[in-house]
Amino acid sequence: MKQSLLVLILLMTILMTSCGQVLNKGQLNNVGLLLDGTIHDETWGKGAYLGALEIKDEHNISVLTRESVTTSRETEEHVKDMKRQGVNLVFGHGSDFGKHFSSINEYYPEIQFVYFNGNTFDQNITSIHFDGYEMGYFAGVLSAKVTDTNQIGVISAFQNQPEVQGFYEGVKNTNPNIKVHLRSVFDWYDQQRAMLLFNDLLEEDIDIVYPAGDGFNIPIILEAKKHDIYSIGYVNDQYEVAPDSVLSSTVQDLEKVYANVANQYNQGELPSGVIHYGFDNEYIYLGEYGDAVDEQVREEVDSLIEEYIETGRLHK
Question: What is the pLDDT along the chain (316 residues), one digit of tens a residue?
Fold first, then answer.
């Protein structure tokens, strides 16, 4: 009897030690990253890739990346392969992954799926929402304070982008006499159409342009510089692209967001449902001011941002 009791105690000790190791390690094994575009776009896709590398380095795990994933069938093929390689956290970098994940998630209960800017969620599906209105608003305020011609252009991927609405209202609330010329590409990556729209805006005597699209943002910034036109960067801080012509950037710090989500999951604290990231000067913020922005304008915009952070109210 005593021998059996000793064996039982020994087994319990081994199990408790094993569980402690698992808890210390957390839940995260390997990570998968699916993109409907490319990691080479210098904005949205690149940010996701850098975020995945941040997770890899911090947790010393493997990250499997797949580009140009556009269908539920492709998604499931990659997820199935990722499962075989020990992945238990899969990021779908775009809103369409909500429907892709919801069609397969019940078959992969051991995997947590995370995607962006959608309303679909489930027990093992989390949607990350970037609330872009405020970052657009402050970029609009900045642009209104800098423009000389009172003609500002916007080239958006789609008409309903909250950062574009915020930009428009930021300009108008600062100076209602400024004309904001809105153009939409109806695609995140169509550089050719974006450039045609930019050439059209040149005829409107714009001196600032906000190209709010992943695949055409950098080309428009560089083309605008050739015409002595200022620009607003998008997703990443793009001061270094053209320090003398980029006024600032509407930044969604994907590296920090990816790392934060992975840490939450690792600690068993990542909820299902919809998580909102708003303008907080940590994950979403205005990037570095360009060389053309004088000190007074910087102080005025910074003061408005500080007021918003403290009160949650925009100065209108």
Answer: 434 433 333 333 333 333 322 222 358 999 999 999 888 887 888 889 999 999 999 999 999 999 999 999 999 999 999 999 999 999 999 999 999 999 999 999 999 999 998 999 999 999 999 999 999 999 999 999 999 999 999 999 998 999 999 999 999 999 999 999 999 999 998 999 999 999 999 999 999 999 999 889 999 999 999 999 999 999 999 999 999 999 999 999 999 999 999 999 999 999 989 999 999 989 999 999 999 999 999 999 999 999 999 998 887 6
Question: Residue 196 burial (CB < 10 Å; 0-12/13-18/19+)?
Answer: middle
Ranges in the chain annotated CATH 3.40.50.2300: 8-131+255-277, 133-252+284-311
Region for 87 from its dihedrals, namely left if φ exceeds 0, alpha if ψ lies in -120 to 50, beta otherwise: beta
Phi, psi at 62, each rounded to 5°: -95, 145
Longest dimension (CA), the chain: 94
Cβ–Cβ under 8 Å, residues 155 and 201? yes
Name the strands in the sheet holding 63-66, side by side, starting at the edge strand that comes first in the sequence. 63-66, 30-35, 87-93, 112-116, 125-130, 273-277
Q: Can you state the angle between helices 162-174 and 133-146, rounded to 10 degrees? A: 40
Alpha-carbon gap, residue 288 to 297, rounded angstroms: 13
**From the candidate CATH numbers 3.40.50.2300, 3.30.565.10, 3.30.70.260, 1.10.10.10, the one assigned to the domain spanning 133-252+284-311:** 3.40.50.2300
User: What is the distance between the alpha carbons of residues 74 and 93, in angstroms, rounded to a whole number?
Assistant: 14
Q: What angle do CA 305, 310, 316 make, to 5 degrees?
A: 55
Point out which residues pair with 64 in neighbouring strands: 32
CATH 3.40.50.2300 is the classification of domain 8-131+255-277: yes
> Is residue 111 a contact partner of residue 79, using CB atoms and an 8 Å limit?
yes
**Angle, alpha carbons 94-37-115 (nearest 5°):** 20
